[in-house]
Amino acid sequence: MFKDKAFLKRLSMLAIPIMFNEMLNSSVNLLDTFMIGKLGEAAVAAVGLANQIFFLYIVINFGINSGSAIFMGQFNGAKDYKGIHKCLGTTFILTLITAIIFESAAIFVPETIMSLYSKDPKVIALGSDYLRIVAYSYLLSGMSMMINAGLKCTGNVVRPTITTFISLFCNFIFNLIFIFGFKMGVRGAALATLTARFIELSVIVLWICIKKSVILTSPAGYFKSIDKAFLAAFVPVVTPVILNELMWAFGMTIYNVAYKYSGTEAQAAVQIAGTVQNEFMVAGIAVGSASGIMIANALGSGDKERAIDYSRKSMAMSTLFSGVAAVLLVLLAKAIAGFFDVSDTARNYALIMMYIVAVGMFIKTLNYVTVVGILRNGGDTRFCLIADAATVWFVGVPVAFLGSAILHLPIYITFTMVYLEEITKLFLTVPRVLKNKWVNDLIK
Predict the structure, then answer these.
(1) SS3 breakdown of the chain: % helix, strand, coil, rounded to 5?
(2) What is the DSSP string of 219-242?
(3) Model-level pTM?
(4) pLDDT tens sequence across 379-415
(5) Domain extent listing, the chain
(6) 27, 91, 435, 437: most buried by Cβ count inside 10 Å?
């Protein structure tokens, strides 16, 4: 692996900007959690749980964009830019429909949504206030995500990182203004997120217009070439990806439904540990995303052997990056836990779960690389759907309710038990990669 300098150079050129982009994306959530943490554990739990509907929306959009990126990566390998344009047009339609559904739910029935995740009236009220405002940012986030996916598939991974940094900076400034300056509390956090997302989308649209990016065409150009032949190839591959993300995301939100039986302190600790986990997994996610682009490009150019070689090396690289991240998390866990103004019990729970995350990170990262980076980009999307859905719903969800609602175990024990989902998935996905059943040239 380390002797292949061409592989390392290409992976580094793609992975490093993606890593910073993912780090910045995670930092937006970490920053929100930290700043809202100054308002107390009820506010932390409220915003974290309210964002479960945004999490569902973003994960579905990730499925749409991830499925579309399979084709865009292979179209880019074949230098077929009209193919990329019709992928973006189809993605926009799906993103718009999804945004309308989720924004309507968050605006009109926020109390119903919050009551699914919490029994605490204060948490429900705060979360509802947050949802009514932040809902208007959903379409903006989906549009930015779509454009960034197109840029990454065409090799431009730096620009998404810059715009995400702008979003993070704006979010920080507006958090200070609205949360603490105008004393708006969680409503201020929602307004800050909405403003930052609007600026992020404006900047990236302006940039692709000025630079005349290859993903840019006339408005009609995104839709006029969408025909039956394209949809006949696109839908069977992308639909399992969307269903995959939907089933997985609903499973993740059901975990939070299970955790409510452990109390508000436990839920606040889960939100802290989950946010920190996302921050420390960025390197492994970057390797998965970068390898996915490389594999799709290789398959698009007709080089299946190179795609297989990339798959093996990317799995090894993910393990290496996870080890470094795990050591850093163990060293920094106490300091990170001390940043949050929550009860001693919630802080201690969060600290224990950060140590658990450090160990589980190896498995979660490798699963991300195999499923999202390798199998999907080779077109093996149906297997990914089966593996993800089966492990979440038949392993993770039952275990979460068993630990929290039935046995009433400490939250950190239930949190550990849920990792059985990832362990089971590992035994399904790694052999699949090694058998090379995932290698498909889709655009032909």
Answers:
(1) 85, 0, 15
(2) GGGGTTT--HHHHHHHHHHHHHHH
(3) 0.75
(4) 888 999 999 999 999 999 999 999 999 999 999 999 9
(5) 5-434
(6) 91
